[in-house]
């Protein structure tokens, strides 16, 4: 057993079946770690290129990626925790750090997803009216505000002992059954400020983008479909990754007042928590690799590696000479393309305009 001495018996001796933590959780953690780590490293590099090109979108992408990476680095600790039948063998400080990284990933990710959606909305719908809000300085200030707000929220919320003893004398981390009284208001705040309000911001932003896309006669039908898929995928992934978890937070706050209900909702609640983990993989796929130019660059890099290994014919190198390097598109260039009915305008605006 762990030598830790929990500060309070938060579980009230509830007998919970933790089998899901020994079966599904390790698979998800390993999958997200193996796929998410390289994907987010590439995403961080892509964000750096955007910043280098003086594109404020790069600041939001880098912050979003850093939040994902911090959580990914905590996954080995959570993996060991679940494989040891939910028995935390480290000290309470590390439990708090890992728990904070988990919640920070959720709400900082949500914050920067909203920033990206609003930035794209302003770029497409109001390219001139709100230019002062689409600068590097403004993006840096907003980023500092988001990080400060979430860190202060964590300092206020996580002042309680976060390790406790369950009925099997295992030291559990960030798990209370049934939930404590102080958690009720916190859960309502998370649902309203951390999910519902950001969802309305995303929906408003992307509805505005879709209206512009629909009214644009110079945009090809194929491009319109591509933009609509990107927008709908973003909203859908937001709902799938964060919706079930926040809904169950409210359900637990309203109905969980005894061990019987806690046992019934345990599995579905932890499945919803695992869904939030997939956000670490979805973010780089949606916001970086969905760009046509970025996809072409990665395809070139992949084929170049294969060519060096002798897996491709020498002739394939010639086809890449026809592709021009990616350059940032200015607002002036945007209008020029717009008035000449170039179909790439809206797609470029969605992936970043400097």
Automatic annotation (TrEMBL):
Protein's membrane topology: Multi-pass membrane protein
Q: Which intervals hold domain G-protein coupled receptors family 1 profile?
A: 39-287
The answer on whether this UniProt entry bears the keyword Metal-binding reads no
The protein's location, in the record's own words, is:
Cell membrane
- Predominant location: membrane
| Gene Ontology terms describing biological process | adenylate cyclase-activating G protein-coupled receptor signaling pathway; cellular response to acidic pH; insulin secretion; monocyte differentiation; negative regulation of monocyte differentiation; osteoclast development; phospholipase C-activating G protein-coupled receptor signaling pathway; positive regulation of insulin secretion involved in cellular response to glucose stimulus
- What parts of the sequence cross the membrane? 27-48, 60-79, 99-118, 138-159, 188-209, 230-248, 268-289
Q: Name one GO molecular function term.
A: G protein-coupled receptor activity
What InterPro entries would the database entry show? GPCR_Rhodpsn (IPR000276), GPCR_Rhodpsn_7TM (IPR017452), OGR1_rcpt (IPR005389)
Q: Which superkingdom does the taxonomy of this entry point to?
A: Eukaryota
Q: Which UniProt keywords apply?
A: Cell membrane, Disulfide bond, G-protein coupled receptor, Glycoprotein, Membrane, Receptor, Transducer, Transmembrane, Transmembrane helix
Spell out the Gene3D superfamilies in the cross-references: Rhodopsin 7-helix transmembrane proteins (1.20.1070.10)
Coiled-coil stretches are none
Q: What would be one Gene Ontology cellular-component term for the protein?
A: plasma membrane
Sequence similarity: Belongs to the G-protein coupled receptor 1 family.
Q: What is this protein called?
A: G protein-coupled receptor 68
Native species: Aquila chrysaetos chrysaetos
